[in-house]
Design brief:
Length: about 60
């Protein structure tokens, strides 16, 4: 009997997929920079409306 050994070999055995790398972590320097940026934004959130109102009042006083 003839056996054809030129046939495609069987696929390799199944292996579970690899997990992706964990999310990258911020370095301490990046954490400090992020904290400073957030702090400045919070400060401006509180101060900017007062400054904006003062500018509007000054423009209103110029046209009186």
């Amino acid at each position: 009997m003839f056996v054809d050994f030129r046939d495609v070999p069987p696929p390799p055995p199944w292996q579970p997929p690899k997990r992706p790398d964990p999310r990258p972590q911020l370095t301490p320097r990046q954490q400090n920079a992020l904290a400073a940026i957030i702090g400045v934004n919070v400060l401006l959130l509180l101060v900017a409306p007062i400054g904006g109102a003062t500018v509007i009042q000054a423009i209103g006083a110029l046209f009186r």
